[in-house]
Automatic annotation (TrEMBL):
It is found in: Membrane. GO terms for cellular component: membrane. Residues 1-39 are annotated as: Disordered. The keyword Membrane applies. It comes from the Bacteria. This is Twin-arginine translocation pathway signal. It comes from Mycolicibacterium vaccae ATCC 25954. Keywords: Membrane, Transmembrane, Transmembrane helix. PANTHER family: OUTER MEMBRANE PROTEIN RV1973 (PTHR37042).
């Protein structure tokens, strides 16, 4: 009997060969599955990363906005507000305070001494207020009553020489007329003073009064 097989016969696959083919198929299927899963897993890995980046961006934006608001507040308190407190309108308020205070200080009459001095003291502050109170009580009042001394002052011109948010200096030029029993016709004097102002509770008050 011959071992040669007919040319048209199908070769039978042994059990070992079938196992090898099955193993190769499983390996191929696993590789294909892994190839499909890799993009999905990559996208899944990117999603938390995008979420984290979005959260970080939001936090950074909030911090930036808060920092911007803080800088705006600092700029207002340190730049804009002081400018408002030293602008021409603020200087005009200080100027008027110096002028009215100067007239009140240098004008009095024996008929209204208490009222005149009370009005003047309402425009003063600090050590100068203490000095003025003592001076008017001990020197001016006795002389005004005894000799009927009366003075009237007027401001010829005035200008702000320096201004800060809480302090100012004003140069004031004054004409003053003084009458008394001894000189009923009166004596005229022109002078100038440097008026130092301090802002107290929003009001400009005189803290110094120096002839120049």
């Amino acid at each position: 009997m011959s071992d040669d097989k007919p040319a048209g016969d199908v070769t039978e696959i042994g059990s070992d060969e079938r196992d090898d083919l099955a193993s190769d198929k499983d390996t191929g299927d696993d590789a294909a599955a892994e190839a499909v899963d890799e993009p999905v897993m990559a996208e899944a890995a990117k999603a938390p990363r995008r979420s984290t980046l979005g959260l970080v961006s939001a936090i950074l934006l909030t911090v930036a906005l808060l920092a911007s608001a803080g800088m705006a507040g600092w700029f207002y308190l340190n730049e804009y507000r002081p400018d408002q407190q030293t602008d021409p309108a603020a200087a005009q308020v200080a100027l008027e305070a110096a002028k009215t205070g100067t007239v009140a200080l240098l004008s009095y009459s024996p008929e209204s001494l208490d009222q005149d001095f009370t009005n003047a003291k309402s425009k003063l502050t600090g050590d100068f207020l203490s000095y003025y109170t003592q001076f008017t009580e001990q020197i001016v009042t006795p002389a005004a009553k005894e000799k009927s001394v009366k003075t009237a002052a007027s401001v010829v011109r005035a200008g702000v020489s320096e201004i800060q948010p809480d302090s100012a200096e004003v140069l004031v030029f004054i004409n003053q007329t003084t009458t008394s029993k001894e000189n009923p016709d009166g004596a005229f004097a022109a002078s100038s003073v440097k008026v130092g102002l301090k802002k107290v509770d929003g009001n400009w008050l005189i803290e110094s009064f120096d002839p120049v």
